[in-house]
Each structure stands twice: as structure tokens, then as C-alpha cells.
Give the backbone structure.
Amino acid sequence: MDGNAADLSALGHMNTVTDANASYLNRTFSAVRALSLFLPWVYYNRVSISYPRIIQFFTALRQSTNLPIGAAGFCWGGRHVIALSHGNETVNGQPLIDVGYTAHPSNLSLPADIEKVELPLAIDQGSADFVLNMAGVKTIRGIFERKNGELREEGKERPRFEIKVVDGAKHGFAVRCDMDNGEEAAQEQIAETHAVEWFGKWFAGTGSTT
């Protein structure tokens, strides 16, 4: 984010906003405070500014190695991983990444962003996420199922696309859970395990991963 990260206190305010047990007054105060912290961040890290930085980084990375490249992104970063998974940006005809993984992505344009996905991509999504709701999950799942069906018809051996729903998980569960909360820690572990298995599946037999 090139020095423009939101203040860490914003995470605490977001936890209060999404806490069903918090009072209306506390949730309202936290919502206002979170907006005051996030709006400057959104401005300085909007897609038109942040995505070219990401392209520059992965272009340099692709040029520096022959190893396979995986990208993982969460929330705001998930949208960028999905864009990279379109495979439009290349170096010498090779996509900038080989495999993508994201949990609780945000700022998606559905169905367009998912329709364009061509590279292997896995998504973990919480059932209680206020950013991408279950209607959005249904849209993504339908597109992935259709794409995987088309791959089978072409004789491909394995599906490239999957989305899993983590029951009860809220937005941010994969990276900012309370590890002292057993339920949240278990939800985070589901995402971590899935990500490791997903990259392992696609990078098996290719040597080390970048």
C-alpha cells in the first residue's frame, strides 16, 4: 500500500460494527470512526492506483524466476488476485501468476469479475460476511460449476475453480480473527488449510513455489 495503510484501530471498530451483541450506540460510533479511517485509505489505494503497482511487482517477479507463482489476497487484495487470475497481463506470453487464492474478497463486480477468470482460483467465503453475501456466493458457484463442466468436456483432468463457504464466519475471518476465540480460530484454520492444500495441488511436482 506504499505507506498508506489504514490505522490499525480501524480493525477494532470493524469488529464492533459486525458484532451482533454490541449496542446500537457502540456500533454507530464505530461505523463513523471506521469510515473516517477507511475513506482516506480507499482514496489512496483505489484500484486505478493500486493495481498498476501490483502488476509492476508481479511482472518483475515473473521476469526473475522460472518457478511457478501463486498469489493470495484477502478483502481488498482478493479483488486483485481475482483480476490477476483473468490472465490478461503477461510476460513473454506467460501469465503473471499461475494460481490464485482469496478469502473474503471485496469490491467485486459480479458476475463480470468471475466470468473472466481463466487461471486456477479458490475462494473461501464466510456465511456471515456483510461484504459478499450468499447471493453473491451463489453467483460465483454457478459460474465456477459451469467453467469446470466446460473443462471436463475438453478432457481436462481436474477442476480449476472452487469456492467454499465457512459456516458462521464473518468478513476478515482468515486474517484478523481472535485466536483466543475457539470458533474464530477454527474458521481461520479452515482457510489456512485450504490455501496450503490448493497451492500444493497445483504446484505438486514443480519444485519450490514463489
User: Anything to note?
Assistant: The chain has a mean pLDDT of 91. Residues 70 and 99 are 5 Å apart (CA to CA). The first strand starts at residue 70 and ends at 74. DSSP finds seven helices and six strands in the chain.
